[in-house]
Amino acid sequence: MQDPLHITPITKPLGSRIQLPGSKSITNRALILAALAQGETTLKGALFSRDTRIMLTALQALGYSVSADEANAEITVGSEDGNLPAEKAELHVGNAGTAARFLTAFLARRPGGRYQLDGDPAMRDRPMSGLLDALVELGAADFEFHGKKGHFPFTLVAKGYSGGTAQVDASASSQILSALLLSGTSEEAALSLICPGVRPAYVAITLKMREAFGAPPLEADASGQYHLEPLTYSTPGSYSIEPDVSAASYFLALALIQGGELRIPHLGPNPLQGDAHFVEVLAHHGLVVEAEDEEWVATRAPGEDIQRDHREVDFNMISDTFLTYAAIAPLLGGSVRITGIGHTRHQETDRVAGMAAELSKLGQLVKEEDDALTIRPKPNELRARALAARNRGELLTIETYEDHRFAMSFGILGSFDLLGDGKPWLAIKDPACCGKTFPKFFEVLSDLTPSRPRLR
Ligand SMILES: O=C(O)C1=C[C@@H](OP(=O)(O)O)[C@@H](O)[C@H](O)C1
Ligand SMILES: C=C(OP(=O)(O)O)C(=O)O
User: Fold this and answer.
1) Which of 98, 113, 232, 369 could form a disulfide with 28 if both were Cys (CB 3.0 to 4.6 A apart)?
2) Any ligand 2 atom below 6 A from CB of 127
């Protein structure tokens, strides 16, 4: 892929149907559940991306039989007796939060196991200690740290789950609680996890998916305590994975700024993924999304005004999509204050700081707070900077911080025909970083631009 990638603006209202890849969150949960359930499970509509390959590779290294049919988006996992085969392994979790947390809790199941884990430099800084402390408190694992205490790289000395109660601090990442809800069960003993105040959207996905693998419904009591009864997971045989709704956010934003109609198949009115609520954020600006026969249809009449007065939106429950919104803020007319995003400073990169830096570079007025970002759009300044860059023979260029969501979000902004001539004005550095969750993102985007040569 060209790097930096010049984005060719789209000059017509949309009128397309796009195929989105499967959800990262659901694929990586399903892989863990398939390994935990005795027998063979085929995942349909699975995502093939860096984060899911990390999980696949780990399961193979741990002795599971995994066969992948990428052309048909299917993965089959065989688990002889639901027990973890390998006593030893060296695993690399990249910068996949799901793999990092879910595998750590999963490995603790194998008494006598000794596992070396490491991740990308960015992953070595991401929060793990809430999970590691809970595993130690449960007597399920001990850790030998080879760098900073409470972080990768470490050796996990597994002792197995045998019930008990743990306080779980999942304030830094709800994946910490999801990891324990997936793997903390045992066939003999009940387990209690006390975890008040966790952000619930992805925990709800975990709870629903446990049920699909034979677990009884589970919910927290009023004090935030989850009581897990003894459990043996059972395979549903095959499991269908929804398209990635966080990835849908980019194309919904595109439909808003571009107008026309966009169709996204295989999504119904009530997807598992909480990021579906992003639709409500864009509805305020005039985007209409309807679920018709298991297909989302997004429309905005061309020329309809998307400008609004100042707006404050709490993204705490849908924080992966705040970047999508922030990146199109320069086109929204009214200012926006995006709140509830402090935890995203500890994700792929410091997303609040990175977004503030990139939007400031584009001439937007940005106020950064610990937990919030206010963006006052300056469309004329954006145009002036784009023209000035062009006069120098350059394009405005976005840093992506090895964060897929920067690449994809600003890819949408660059698709807007800012200078009215259909020629590129924005470029994205390291566009291939979108491979974390959506390797073909820029191909899908370029397919919406009939005049653009296909990227290969
Ligand atoms: O459980 C999951 O699959 C996820 C939970 C969220 O992370 P945090 O809970 O760390 O915010 C989300 O940002 C991430 O993309 C996927
Ligand atoms: C936060 C994200 O990823 P991870 O699963 O690595 O936490 C994300 O995809 O936006």
Assistant:
1) 98
2) no
